Amino acid sequence: MRSDKAESPALVKNMNGFRDILEKRRHTSDVLWITREWNPVRTVSDATATNPLSIRKAVLNSARLKETIKELCEERGVKPEVLYKEVEDQLSEIGHNRQISIVRWIGLLVTKVLKKTCSNLMVNEEAISKLKANMGNTPIIFAPSHRSYADFILMAYICFHYSIEIPCVAAGVDFMAMWLMGHLLRDCCAFFMRRQFSGDKLYYTVFSEYVRALICQGTAPVEFFIEGTRSRSAKSLVPKYGFLSMALEPFLTGQIPDVMIVPINISYDRILEEKLFAYELLGVPKPKESTSGLLKALNALDEKYGKIYADFGEPISMREFLESQMFERARHSVGPIHLQPLTDEEMAMIRVLSHHIVRSQQQISVLSPFHLVAVILNNNLLTHGTFEMQLSDLIREVAWFRSVIETFGATVDISGDVEKSVREALHVHKSLITLLPDGAVQLKAVHLPGTRIDTSRLKGHALLDDTMSRAVPLLMLQHYVNPALHFLANPALVTTVMQHLEPSGEILRDDLFARYQFVRGILAHEFVLHKSWEEKEFEEALRVLDLVNIVEVTTSGLLSLGNHRKLQVLLCNVLHPFFAGYLALSQTLAQVCGEARPEKLVMCEAQRRVEMALKSGEVSHPAALSLDGLSCGLQALVSLGAIYRIRRGDEVLYVANLKELEVVTKHLETFVALHGMDHKWSWQKLELHQSLPAKL
């Protein structure tokens, strides 16, 4: 990296605003703290706490519900009393409760668990103080990232710690079926929503009116996960718009003057579900939520999980956001509000907003030392065909990569001694990574040979046991690579394009942008890349690539690659598994989708093709097997016009547009070529450590 451009102080963030809120809990009485007088800050300061019964009454008395019941009575030929009974049942299913005594006791349990399993719970206290100072006059929506089931609990715990009213959080109805746990979540302000309800007009009306009442009449923040579900890969998911549109409708229709949305990121040094997620990505379905399953999972609490980071982003005022978008909301001023659905223009604005929220979550994420360790080990595999590295080499590479990714805008929790940080990270992840007596760092085998898997429930191809043995730990490691990719994706896309220039190695800026646009379109769903931001993000990528000497301007005004070969290789390598999976998918579609084929058949065949390519050495990373990645590939190919999606009843089918598909496939074949590996990849010779780790 060139010394004259290595540092960009405006980009390098730090951890100064963060505070470990577990520190005092380790030295004072948990019981006295949890039973303290608690007077929380509310979204509306001069009102009493949200009364769940008043919310139910508001729904029952809403004009929209009455109109819907009137319509359905005519359609179904039933009396209103029948439908109101159905509404009461739905409200009993949906409705939250607020039992502060339950909140306190769960808070005590959570404190004990966190102190046992986590070294620190780091919260950006400066951001919290700023948020509290602005609370009291405007409804607030919390929009946290979703990486673990622990997100629910941590949000409530942080709010209790800082005396903020416990949020009313939207939870999947699956949790209701869990004996005891469903009741406890409800008593801690969870309200429940079905996974699918677009075809049920009555339920949709009841639920949307419940959300409207929480926004307009509630005094607690409303919390929801904009990604819709936990990200099994630790990358951001393409945002869902349904709940957000419900929550914003009161503002867009003029019922309230403003609403504040707070993007929140919760980052984990290590997550509880790391192994479960690896199996899910390979097609093994998750166990059904149950209390017994939760109790079994408690065995994992004997292990250490390092640090957790929570950061609250800059609140988004919807009134100011609309002004910045030059959007007019006076269109609902004529006629009854409850009869006016949101317009296409409003839904388009909500889509832009949802991507803005996800981007804000990414920008305030924190990378732990192990995230950097994972990137370096992964790069070593793709460059040299092995994970094994000497600890001294790993420490040196982490120190180098830290300077790179901070230049790209990431916040990295390494202060002072890099060696100490790396050793602590390896200790936290000793179930996945081992340090041998000779100082070598090696990946461990975590999949037991002969593990019984119910093939009838598989979502993909039945992978061989030998494949599973290598793929599971590699996907677990990839889980910790992925959070860094939000900062690397755009620079990596530009670098990948420039690696494949003509012999002259030079290109016009506009030509580079055109090629970047195409490749970006292929990975747009993988990294949640919004179309309208592509030019701005291209310019930002060029700026940081200039800082690290990957892109240079020639004397003739053209762009060419600089001499930072080491970083060029790493940036191309981080995208390799995604291009490899997409290539297998494209080849599968060309082969089997001359006629409409069901999605599961396509996914199974694509996984089978990747498995064969891993054995032959054509593909060098099992992340290409990920069903989430293949699903993103399908969405991208639909967007590019390379395939067509057809829905027949509940079944989704795909048909190939062979001409366009061939264009995409040729590009992918080029990008899959490895950079820096000068030998034949051998999947079978990849060694995993089988014994216990050395003491760190």
UniProtKB/TrEMBL annotation:
<dbReference type="GO" id="GO:0008611">
    <property type="term" value="P:ether lipid biosynthetic process"/>
</dbReference>
<dbReference type="Pfam" id="PF01553">
    <property type="entry name" value="Acyltransferase"/>
</dbReference>
<dbReference type="Pfam" id="PF19277">
    <property type="entry name" value="GPAT_C"/>
</dbReference>
<dbReference type="GO" id="GO:0008654">
    <property type="term" value="P:phospholipid biosynthetic process"/>
</dbReference>
<dbReference type="GO" id="GO:0012505">
    <property type="term" value="C:endomembrane system"/>
</dbReference>
<dbReference type="GO" id="GO:0016287">
    <property type="term" value="F:glycerone-phosphate O-acyltransferase activity"/>
</dbReference>
<dbReference type="GO" id="GO:0006631">
    <property type="term" value="P:fatty acid metabolic process"/>
</dbReference>
<dbReference type="GO" id="GO:0031966">
    <property type="term" value="C:mitochondrial membrane"/>
</dbReference>
<dbReference type="GO" id="GO:0019432">
    <property type="term" value="P:triglyceride biosynthetic process"/>
</dbReference>
<keyword id="KW-0808">Transferase</keyword>
<keyword id="KW-0472">Membrane</keyword>
<dbReference type="InterPro" id="IPR045520">
    <property type="entry name" value="GPAT/DHAPAT_C"/>
</dbReference>
<comment type="similarity">
    <text>Belongs to the GPAT/DAPAT family.</text>
</comment>
<dbReference type="InterPro" id="IPR022284">
    <property type="entry name" value="GPAT/DHAPAT"/>
</dbReference>
<dbReference type="InterPro" id="IPR002123">
    <property type="entry name" value="Plipid/glycerol_acylTrfase"/>
</dbReference>
<dbReference type="GO" id="GO:0004366">
    <property type="term" value="F:glycerol-3-phosphate O-acyltransferase activity"/>
</dbReference>
<feature type="domain" description="Phospholipid/glycerol acyltransferase">
    <location>
        <begin position="140"/>
        <end position="269"/>
    </location>
</feature>
<dbReference type="GO" id="GO:0005778">
    <property type="term" value="C:peroxisomal membrane"/>
</dbReference>
<protein>
    <recommendedName>
        <fullName>Phospholipid/glycerol acyltransferase domain-containing protein</fullName>
    </recommendedName>
</protein>
<dbReference type="InterPro" id="IPR041728">
    <property type="entry name" value="GPAT/DHAPAT_LPLAT"/>
</dbReference>
<keyword id="KW-0012">Acyltransferase</keyword>
